[in-house]
TrEMBL record:
This is L-ascorbate metabolism protein UlaG (Beta-lactamase superfamily). InterPro entries: Metallo-B-lactamas, NAPE-PLD, RibonucZ/Hydroxyglut_hydro. GO terms for molecular function: N-acylphosphatidylethanolamine-specific phospholipase D activity; zinc ion binding. Residues 78-275 form the Metallo-beta-lactamase domain.
Amino acid sequence: MGSRKEKGKYVNSIPTNMGMSVKSITGMLRDTVRGNPKRNPAQPIPFKRASFQAQPTADRPQVTWFGHSAFLLELEGRRLLFDPMFAQSPSPVSFFGGKRYSGSLPLEPEEFPALDAIILSHDHYDHLHKGSILKLKGKTKRFIVPLGVGSRLRGWGIDPAQITEHDWWQELQLFQLKLACTPARHFSGRGLFDRNSTLWCSWVIAGERHKVFFSGDSGYGPHFKQIGDKYGPFDLTLMECGQYDERWAAIHMMPEQTVQAHMDVQGRLLIPVHWGAFTLAFHDWFDPIERAVKAAKERGVVIAAPHIGETTVAGSSSYNVEPWWRG
């Protein structure tokens, strides 16, 4: 069963209240006034300079993370770029979200190798950036997006023949890879009047030997177990972890839920994403990774915490979990 609409708007598969009570709004105003010096790094955070071979790996899955939810997946000889938001600010209003923690990027969009596809999870500004798409459009001939998001790309001059739009539980073939557009618990929109006019999703990427899962933005919910039952186990998961708050836990997981969701989809290696680039919540900027690493160790989950720009190979004998964010 795919997604559904109510009054012309996409809705989540379980009730998801995104309204704010007077108490929540008052608390947010108080937190804003009070401030938190640890919401942002004291200085630009370190990153690795990314580089890629002429041909992608045909062996184990490799992921290079660019901060927030942008990453390049190399799987069985194919290169897929997810949520390539490479702007210096995550918002059309520059003072909201501040500047990118790393200052510079591990690789400029113009320097990317040829891509087999660019894949998007939803249309929020911190995942879909016009300038980044326009700089990358010559690197690929395929854009794979959830329902409705194609209109954003077409409006920016992307060839409609290069775009395919997909509903929840719809599968598609990309060379030898099978992709599935799977549910997430979130919302969409880029303005005051277009909320939930496009779909949001997670993604399953299944090769002939290996499988990877990307959660997109999502609150915790039963869809993770449903995805695991249908498509798991996964060699690697990239799970949302960051920009959370108990006041909006329905649409962004807490770090402990990130680890549980990884277990629900039957993942082997967990890489937390949606952190390490911008400030969109009130928690300490490094809180997501520290809480996720702690929860993973307590539950026997294998986790990696790579530098931005560092490539992680699934199936390795060990992974980077050193607290580089502590300087």
